[in-house]
Amino acid sequence: MPEIPKFHEFMRPLLEVLQEQGELARNDAIEAVIMKMGITDEQMAINQESNGKPIVRGRIGWASSYLRVAGALIGPKRGFFALGPCPVSTT
Predict the structure, then answer these.
(1) What are 80-91's pLDDT values in tens digits?
(2) 47 three-class SS
(3) How many Å apart are CA 2 and CA 34, to the nearest integer?
(4) Neighbours of 76 (CB within 10 A)
(5) What is the pLDDT of residues 62-84, one digit of tens each?
(6) Could you give the domains of the chain?
């Protein structure tokens, strides 16, 4: 089974995507992170046993949740991500 990055490994790429592209719909942001990290079709095919959803998408969701709590990410409207007021360096 291919290795899937842990949720915290998606944090920086998610912040970088939002820094580069600005506010994005949740699904667009997730797809951009998947592309940026070079996640393979094989990795995307691994689903959670409990609900059948891709593990990668769930882990990006967890990364976004923790970034939101930290103030680095906001939800300007339902289903959207944007960088928050908390200054976070992605360099």
Answers:
(1) 999 998 665 555
(2) strand
(3) 15
(4) 10
(5) 999 999 999 999 999 999 999 99
(6) 7-83 (1.10.10.10)
Q: Which of 86, 73, 90, 88 is nearest to 29 (CA)?
A: 73
Least Cα distance to 20 among 64, 81, 75, 67 occurs for: 81
Q: Which of 63, 66, 71 is nearest to 30 (CA)?
A: 63
**In the sheet that 24-25 helps form, which strands lie side by side, from edge to edge?**
24-25, 80-83, 73-74
Q: What is the pLDDT of residue 2?
A: 84
Answer positive or negative: Cα dihedral of 27, 23, 64, 79: negative
| Confidence category of residue 1, pLDDT binned at 50, 70, 90 | low
Backbone phi and psi for residue 54, each to the nearest 5 degrees, phi listed first: -60, 130
pLDDT tens-digit profile of 7-18?
999 999 999 999
How far apart are alpha carbons 81 and 68 in whole angstroms? 9
